Amino acid sequence: MQVRSHAKINWALRILGKRPDGYHDLETLFQTISLHDTLTIRESDEWRLTCDDPSIPTDESNLILQAARALGVPPVEIELTKRIPAEGGLGGGSSNAAATLVALAQMFGVDERALHQIALSIGSDVPFFLVGGTAYATGRGEDLVSLPPAPEIPLLLLFPEERVATPAAFRMIRRYSQPAGVEAFDDALRGDLLAHRELLRNDFEAHVFESIPRLGQLKRRVEESGAAWAGMTGSGSTIVGAYRSAADRDAAAASFSDVRTQSAETTA
Description:
The chain has 9 helices and 10 strands. With 268 residues, it is α+β, with helices and mostly antiparallel strands.
């Protein structure tokens, strides 16, 4: 079995406060995009994970193996073809875990209604990747409301060499936000999403950009390149530009020779 494991961006990300369990309450608008890893799953007499990216661990610390073992199915061999950068705010590890759960549930006849709790036990973003598309999320990111899909929007992703570990990003937070509410995002999606710049903001940006000024500079360059909207996704470090047309996006990409880029689109 071969399955795609799509990346996500956050159109918006508000940090509402710290919870008694040590996690933070969030409000975010998730969006899956066309950039994806590929998982190839084969029958095996023992658990085995391989990856074409040597920087990705293939031991029990990898969420793919954690997801597979949590499902309680017979051992398989999983080959990961990696395209989503690690520690980029694109949810690659969480997406891999969710894709593993769905694929193995289909392969071994597991009731998919059981997957949500397993997904949450692995990571806060994992439940979203079970549904994908465009979704409003609160709590740790697990309380999901599917919203009208965003139109297909051309995106330019910038992958700086700098990386931001999520725990470190949370430690930078010194103030919290009020939620915007699901209705505000629903209205934006039914109109011109990219015109709602104040709504589409990320609370991590101010703190991360202070710590790593180059990321803030890259966001400004994306805006100056003609993007209708630009922002950092997740806790970083990927910077995303959303453009009115693929031609505008492709023209802008030519101005970023000093940083790795990737063209993509939103997906339902």
